[in-house]
Structure formats: structure tokens, C-alpha cells
Amino acid sequence: MSWKTLAVLAVLAVGLGGFLVVDSYWLTPAREKTSSVKGRLWTIEPKDVEVLTIKRKADTVKLKRAGDGWEMLEPVKARANSGAVNEVVTGLATARVDREIDPNPAKPGDFGLEPPEALVTLEVKGQPAPLTLAVGGKNPTGVWVYAREGSKPAVVAIGDSVSRDVTRPVAEFRDRALLAFDRRNVSAVDLDLDGSKMTLEAEEGGKWRIAKPGPYRGDADMITEMLDKLASATVKEFLGPPKSPAAYGLDKPSRVTLWLGKDKDRTSKTLLLGKVDAAKKGVYVQRQGEQEVLLAPTETWDKLPKTVAAARDKVVFTYAYDKVNRVEIESAAGTVTLQRDGITWNITAPEAFKADTGAVNGLLWRIRDLRASGFLDESPAGFARYLSKPDVTVKIWEEGSKDPKTLLLGMSKAVKVGELTGVAAPAGQGTVFIVEAKDVREFSKTATDLRDKSVLASFDMKEVKRVRLTVGGKRLLMERRGEDEWRVIEPSKGPAKESKVTGLLLTLRALQWKEIAAADGADAARFGLDKPEVEIAVLRADGTEMAGLVIGRSDPKLSYVRSKSSPAIYAVDPKSLEDIFKAPSDIPG
After folding, report:
1. Beta carbons of 434 and 374 less than 8 angstroms apart
2. Is it the case that residue 35 has pLDDT exceeding 50?
3. CA separation for the pair 17, 131 (Å, rounded)
4. 144-175 confidence digits (pLDDT tens)
5. Which ranges of 263-342 does DSSP label H, i.e. alpha helix?
6. Alpha carbon of 541 to those of 25, 399, 493, 534, 559: distances in Å?
7. Burial bucket for residue 274 (CB in 10 Å: 0-12, 13-18, 19+)
8. Considering only Cβ atoms within 10 Å of each terminal Cβ, which end of the chain, N or C, has fewer?
9. Ranges of H-type helices in 191-320
């Protein structure tokens, strides 16, 4: 190939590349733009529309772009629903003409255009004069509507979506947010509700305090929910200026004032609240500075704390659950001391026992979650009056602390005449709380209540190789093959139902005693354990016993059992043994 040929090919390649660049960046977008505006009523972009006016037979809606959103100028001055307005503007700016119906009709009224259903005016950036569109009636099929642009005499058919958009109710163009604010920016709240006044102030970490009256700790969860409901509340109805504020309970309204920001940037928004309308499931409100009455959801009123007590923090006792290493419970039944051992608990007094870790953790959770139903006394004299001799004293030690945190609980007849009421207070903190009487009773725990009541020591089911079961003198021996397969070895070889064997092992591990019938195992014959009805042995691969159980006499309420590793005889619920008695017939196969 000669150098001349190469040169020609190079020039062609450069030219082709240049054409592709021009086509990709200039020609194709230009063709697409031309295609997108083909058949459109106007060649404008929605983002350039600055004012939209829709004049209808009953009213006029005028909307003006404001920043990133829209505001309504008519029929009332208010925030607009930017999403709805943008939908309408986009629909108008991109509306397409289907066909011309009549170039110069003698009777425009035949097309619903004299007068029109709506006269639309668009003020567009860069346009010397507004664009107008008269929207009339629908064609016989209802798919199109008749319209006439500006001063042009011709009647054209356009999509009926334009008619739907320009005949929307005024309320659809309005912003339905009751109060527009960012909850995270609220620094304080003033409440004046049915004459009860208070000021709530935000603190670090999402906490709140009642500054007036007070100070008291605020119920952060309740206050946060109140603000969330206000921020998300939407107007149910726009009712216009009232002829009589008293008709809506707004002549002497309750008030909620939100303070936003801090220092020189601090602003406020106030909502006036009147009557609750049960039939409409709403409450009548006004925004301060505006005449219009609005109907807001009932929960707007329901979620407001009507009293200081309702807004107060109702947590009775605070402590760091994950740092607790010792607990002491003192009641009329005695004193119980518990010590944490890793993730488990042990009872160290009055005797040493393994504790039921689930029961101890449950007790600690109930203490942490204890809530007041009322505030009884704030003075030092309250302790002397209500808790000089508490029914229950709970002491909790945290890691690194020498002194415990102490919770006092009691039952008092001094709160309600002739009725026992639960009272509680953290020692040395002043406030006496009203609590449920059942809470006081639940915290009165004995060593027996908190003991580990497992009949058998826990064993790892993965290490079980064989299970030997004798019921009524008939023996059943099962053996594990691999990880999940079980076989019956005696009295005859065959398959075993894996789910039933697993159920049997779980029953043994979960078996709990209700009573200690004989701690030293004396008089076994009285409990039918000299000649047990059932014997079970759980064996490792080397033949050593991991767990063993014998079952003696049973009656409708109690059955008596004993672990082979302990002399104690326990009474258990007969229902907890049902799977064991059914095992000889359920497992084979």
C-alpha cells in the first residue's frame, strides 16, 4: 500500500471521527429536541414558567414560583403544594395538539369555549407576553377536550389530562402541611393547653427538660412523638376565615409555640387550637397571624401533654444494665444476693446456688423499664411518710463503683383511701413515684424464685452419641450415625425419627422443677423412685454418661424425678414429661 493511499485513508478516518463527534454532541440532541416539541402547543420548558393563573367560573387560582417551590397568591395567600403545581405546569407546557377541529367556528359556545371552563395564563421567563389557553368541553368520546390558544380563532383538540389539571379543587394546589418545620431544629416548646402552661427545652443527646414549672426531666420519647406528629400533620380541610371564632373554640384557644434555632437566628411558629370535632375526627386550628380556620387530625391535639405530670420523665430508676455486677434484694421473705459470673448469675446468699440467668436478667429489665403512673411527693418528707419502712429494697452495684444504687418500693394506703397503692423512689433523689402495686410484688423475690430450676445439668446435644430409655421395663436404645441420622439399636434394629429424638433431648434439657420434694433424697420409695417407672441415660461416644434421669410416681398435679448426678428429689409438671412417655412409640420408624 502506497503512502498516498494511507494518507487518503487517514483523512477519511479523521473526517468520520469528526462527524461522529458532531452527530453525538450537536446533531442528535437537536433532532431529539425537535422531535420532543413536535406537535406541542408551545415550545417552552416547564422550568421557565414563573406564574400560573387559572381563571374558572367559580374562582381564580394564581400561583407564583418562589425559590425551589411555589406560593399561592389567589384565592388566598398561602404556601402551595409544589408537587401538584409542578405536575400541572409540566402538563400545560408539554401539551400536544391532536388535530384542528374548526379553523374559525361560528359558535365557540358549541365547544364549551364561550365562556371557557378555564382560562389559563402562563407567564414565562424570556417571553414578552403571557401565553393563554382557553379550555372548553370534552369531545363526544371524552378522550379529548376543545381548546383555543391565545387570540387564535381555531379550535383544537388536546388531551383531557389538561382539563383535569386545570379544574382541580383549590385545596389540591395548597400545601397541606399543618406546620412546616424541621423537628431537629426545635430548641424549645411553649405549651398553653386548657390553662396549663409549661416550657420544654431541648438538651444534648436528645433529652428534654421542663424548664417552667420545674425544672424536671422531660419524657423525651413522648415529646419526640409529639413533635413528629406536628411535623407530619396534614390539613384535612381549609375552612376559610371564621364568621365567629367561638364556633370553632378559637375565641379562647390553646397554644403551641415552637422555637426554632438559637440566639439571633431564633424564630417561632405558633399553632392555635380550638374545639375537637369528634364527627370529623379533627380539631379546629389556626396558624398565628393567619385568619383561616383549618381542620387538623385529632391526634394533633391528642399527642399534646395536657399537664406537667404527663410531660415529665416517668423513668423511676436509672442504671447501666451492662455494667451491673451485683444485686441485692431485701424483702419480708429475706435477703437474696446475686453475683454476675461472665454472662451468667450465681446466688451467693442466703445459700450458694446457680441462678436462673434468664430470671435475673428479666428482673433487671423490669427494674430498668419501671415507669411511674404519677408523682406523689417531691419533698424530703415524702420518704418518711411513704417509704420509711419499704416492703422491697433493691440495691444494684455497677462495675467500678463501691456504693450501690438503691431503689425503695412499698405499698401505701395513704395515697387512695382504703386502697393499697404502689410507691417507689430512688434513695436520696427526692421524688416519690406512684407505681403499679403488682410491680412492688414482682420485685419481692426469694432465692427459690431466682434459682436455676433445671433438673439436669446442661449438655451439648452435638456430643450425644446414644440415648438409652427404659419405660415400664421395656428398653429402647438409639444411636447417632453422622450428624443428623439416628437409628434404633434395641430392641430391634431400624430407623429412628430424627425430629422425635431431638425433641426428647430438648425436653430433658428444658425440664424444670416446681418444688424440692426431698433435698437429701430421703424416702425415695414414697416418691416411687425405689422402683422408677422411667430411666433415661444420655451417653457420649466413649460410653460415659452426660445426663441421666429417673421418673417415679405421678399424680394429676405432680410427678417426682431425680437426676442421676444428684440425690435431690424434685416435683415437676406431669405435662413436661409427656414426650418422654410417648418416646418408645413415637421414635421408631
Report:
1. yes
2. no
3. 43
4. 999 999 999 999 999 999 999 999 999 999 99
5. 299-302, 308-311
6. 78, 43, 19, 23, 31
7. buried
8. N
9. 220-232, 299-302, 308-311
